[in-house]
Design a protein that fits this description.
Oligomer: single chain
CATH superfamily of the largest domain: Type I PLP-dependent aspartate aminotransferase-like (Major domain)
Distance between the termini: 57 Å
Order of helices and strands: HEHHEHEHEEEHEHEHEHEHHHEEHEEEH
């Protein structure tokens, strides 16, 4: 059995000339083109992929498939479904029936299929911003009515405004709720009490729930991810569960996801819409990678979580030190992460507009993070940072931030 330690994740890997979107510096949005950092020296910590090599046995399985040399039409085997079920039973107490699984090429693709399968143009779909921005984009692209239940931030943590949610479901006649669990970007891992209260409201008003649980495997000490469908049969019967190995095992480019639907009527509707897309088979390599990851990736994932917790601890300590050194009031504070490897930085203390905030990070300190405003109006004043990279890059990024803050203090 493979063992992994810090050296696996500490290794810096050159990703240049690999078609990596994360490192495509031409996408940098420079305000005035003036920066002490050449574009290729800006540290990319924005899009949600990791700078870590995948588990050895996943790589070996892909190599074996390539060496075989034939890439014909492929379908998932019994072993594929067994590996999927074993992973979710072991890690999330979630039993998956083979007939409930739809292998698909990605969660965003699958959300779009669900929107067309279960709603009509003009129907209302609810999301909770700030949230993963393709939710809004996909709803609008499919000509549905966007309804927003804004999450509530108390300066330390995000919670749900249940009264607003229920009122908007009634007033807007909401048909579908796109739910993010664990939540990207605010890093909440929802409690059973919160999930049940949400579920009861949706059941009361016959709202179908699509639960995007792509970050389910990234949960830190003190929190536990609960799969929506495990709340009870009534909740499972009115939901679509979106899962994928892509975030857990850094396989986004492989394009593999698994959509879980137990209700026979919903399965028929989803299958019919999937057929209409003309894309209802995933690639052979996606099947190989997914099965190998879920069958052999437990030790790698456990070591990864431990490593990410170390990155979080370093960031917490350094940001606290900066607050003490720069001024008596917080300049940048970390919204305490409960899950995901995407941290949410509260930058309101800098007193900058969103454009100025982006300029500070990219042009002044040379760190490419994701603009909070991208995730909805509630993201104004925040930035999302991807910490799934070697600790040496985290340390360098923090050094740059501290120098930038100190320079601002000296100039004030």
């Amino acid at each position: 059995m493979d063992k992994y330690d810090c050296t696996w994740f500490d290794t810096e890997i050159d990703r240049s000339n690999t078609n990596a979107i994360k490192y495509n510096s031409s996408k940098l949005n420079l305000t005035n083109g003036v920066s002490p950092f050449p574009q290729d020296e800006v540290i990319p910590m924005w899009v949600a992929d990791m700078d870590f090599r995948i588990p050895r046995q996943v790589s070996e399985a892909l190599h074996n498939a390539v060496d075989h040399g034939i890439f014909g039409y492929s379908a998932p085997s019994v072993n594929y479904f067994e590996a999927l079920n074993h992973w979710f039973e072991t890690n999330h107490d979630f039993h998956i029936e083979r007939g409930d699984v739809f292998p698909t090429p990605g969660v965003v693709f699958s959300i779009s299929v669900a929107i067309r399968a279960f709603t009509k143009p003009g129907d209302s779909i609810l999301i909770q911003q700030p949230v993963y921005y393709p939710f809004e984009r996909t709803i609008k692209a499919n000509e549905r009515n966007l309804v927003i239940n804004e999450l509530v931030y108390d300066g330390a943590r995000y919670t749900i405004d249940f009264e607003d949610l229920e009122r908007k479901i009634i007033d807007e006649n909401v048909k579908l709720f796109l739910f993010c669990s664990p939540h990207n970007p605010v890093s909440r891992v929802w409690s059973r009490e919160e999930l049940t209260r949400l579920g009861d409201i949706c059941l009361k008003y016959h709202v179908l729930v699509l639960s995007d649980e792509i970050h389910a495997d990234f949960v830190y000490r003190g929190s536990k991810h609960i799969v929506w469908a495990t709340l009870g049969s009534a909740y499972a019967d009115t939901s679509i569960i979106c899962t994928a190995p892509s975030k857990t095992f850094n396989l986004a480019g492989i394009q593999s996801s698994n959509i879980i639907i137990s209700n026979p009527e919903l399965k028929r509707a989803y299958a019919a819409e999937l057929d209409r897309t003309g894309y209802n088979e995933v690639s052979q390599m996606a099947l190989v990678a997914c099965e190998a990851a879920y069958r052999h990736g437990q030790n790698w994932k456990d070591a990864l979580i431990e490593y990410l917790e170390g990155n979080i601890q370093l960031i917490e300590e350094r940001l606290a030190g900066m607050q003490a050194n720069v001024s008596n009031t917080p300049a940048i504070s970390l919204v305490k992460p409960e899950g995901t490897y995407l941290l949410w930085l509260d930058c309101a203390g800098l007193g900058l507009t969103d454009a100025e905030l982006n300029q500070f990070f990219i042009e002044k300190v040379g760190i490419w993070v994701h603009k909070g405003i991208t995730f909805g109006l509630g993201g104004s004043g925040f930035m999302r940072i991807n910490i799934a990279c070697p600790r040496s890059l985290i340390a360098e990024a923090l050094d740059r931030i501290e120098r930038g803050l100190m320079a601002d203090k000296d100039n004030s």
